Amino acid sequence: xxxxxKFKAQAKKAVxxxxxxxxxxxxxxxxxxxxxxxGKYSQHIGTGQAKAxxxxxxxxxxxDGDVR
Length: 68
Known about the structure:
Layout (H helix, E strand, L loop, with lengths): L2 H34 L5 H19 L8
């Protein structure tokens, strides 16, 4: 098993164990960024948030949080 395979397995396990907390972190980061930019980039932040959650869902194959 190569280094990348081991890393992917560890990342998958972390997402399986803590996917809900990771999704909450994504939401919190998006909210903070939106507040600090005073809503100027809300659409872009929302798109990034959605893509991050989609990637999270692809990694473990289940919905860990609602996409905005």
